[in-house]
Amino acid sequence: MPKMTFVENDGTEKEVDAPLGLSVLEIAQRNDIDIEGACEGSLACATCHVVIDPSWYKKLEEVSEDEEDMLDLAFNLTETSRLGCQLIMSDELDGLKVKLPEAL
């Protein structure tokens, strides 16, 4: 099974199983990672904002216009910010590393 790593704000890393076909948001929620996902993955908020490790960013599908619009609402946006609900786990993403954005 693919794995992915979440990096908490304090630098703690948590490697988890990442079942194929689930979003990063769903994987986080299954593993008690502190990501809200208020709209439950319907691309209507930015509460599942994550920062992709730069070594992984170019391996992801391109950001859609709708996702870009929602990312504009996210706090602490970076060049490698994405919405966890839009990142679907595949074999190619085995080992993906994402950081939770800094809280305000």
Automatic annotation (TrEMBL):
SUPFAM superfamilies according to UniProt: 2Fe-2S ferredoxin-like
Record keywords: 2Fe-2S, Electron transport, Iron, Iron-sulfur, Metal-binding, Transport
InterPro entries found in the cross-reference section: 2Fe-2S_ferredoxin-like_sf, 2Fe-2S_ferredoxin-type, Adrenodoxin-like, Adrenodoxin_Fe-S_BS, Beta-grasp_dom_sf
Stretches assigned to the 2Fe-2S ferredoxin-type domain: 2-104
Entries under Pfam families matching the protein: Fer2
Cofactor(s) recorded in Swiss-Prot or TrEMBL: [2Fe-2S] cluster
Domain of life from the UniProt record: Bacteria
Similarity annotation: Belongs to the adrenodoxin/putidaredoxin family.
Name used for this protein in its record: 2Fe-2S ferredoxin
Species name: Kiloniella antarctica
